Amino acid sequence: MAAVTWLRSPIGRADVHWATRCGTKSILVLVPHIVAGTRLLDLLPLLEADHRVQVAFTDPEAGENWQATHDFLRAQGGTVLPWAQARHSDVDLVLAGSTRGLDDLTAPALLVPHGGGLGQYRAWRPPPATARPHDPQLGLGPDQLIREGRVRADAIVLVHDQERDLLAEICPRAVPAAVVAGDIALDRIAASLLYRDRYRHALGATGDQQVVVVTSTWSPRSAFGRHPDLFDRVLAALPRDGYRVVGALHPAIWSHHGSWQIRSWLAASLRAGLVLLPPEEGWRAALVAADHLIGDYGSVTAYGAAAGASILLDDNPGQPLLCGTPAEVLARHAPLWRPGRPLEPQLRAATEARDAAGLPGLVQGLLTSRPGEAGLILRRTLYRLLNIPEPAHAVPVAPVPLPNPVTA
Question: What pTM value is reported for the model?
Fold first, then answer.
């Protein structure tokens, strides 16, 4: 195995003689994949303008991960430490969007969900023999949150009080670490709605066009996995002068197959007018602009419903859903997308179903029980773990960036 080259580190004792700002609290951000990374980037503005802290990044799966994760980290402009070096660094706080790497670090850790909450909506792997039929299989179980009798994070961020109730039932040892903070991604979407026309313009939508977002999570059961011609079907079914079709694929699809391959697969769709969003950012801007969304069981579909889009669901028979979660509620109220039938009447039916069920407010209430408060609660938690006072300035809640679509 090749030797790891260690870097000059702003959070390492060995390199302190290089420092200009001394005595800072060190924060290590664990980014095993792009989805975790993008969610953790929502937290970092909570530390802005504080000269008492120094942030560095690392990939806890370096050497066994996607090139896309490496590229994502480099693009942020922060110090990216090799994992072999980072895991031996003396840090004051760890920020994690997944449990990967937590067991190798002794510093206080804050764990945040990276997609609609830790109380997962479905099981994508066989449940353990001890699981009951209604147990969520990812995120909140003791197999995820406990290692060798120890809770793996000092603060486990939950988006909803219902998640804390689930946690108390299936992993009571972790309840003292739970922090119900709401959903910072949803708060940023809400803060962006005032600027909806700007997002529509950035996507190329004219005043008369309706924006249709077509989204897919990853796996063979996802919408894109089941329908390779997903975007071609939608584009062919809608008049181009009346609709702007926007594609949002899960970052894991981009990471595993490669951006060149995605552009190649979708070349005909791009020529036909598809607005394709990059994996790092843009999906939230599209949801702000969306009139309609065609999607599967991924969390982007739920965020779209909360933002006000009408929803057409890709059918996924046999997919287990946890009762009372956004995905299960949408499965009950949103009509199914029928690829072989005219699409415009389906979009009208989806709009009627949205209005009849009051889906935006219903789903938003399931995605967060602390609307608009996530930044306040998360910053308070960060500084509690750092053991220093919070800054005096107000907590920022920034609108999401304007989208930067992929070119063919």
Answer: 0.91
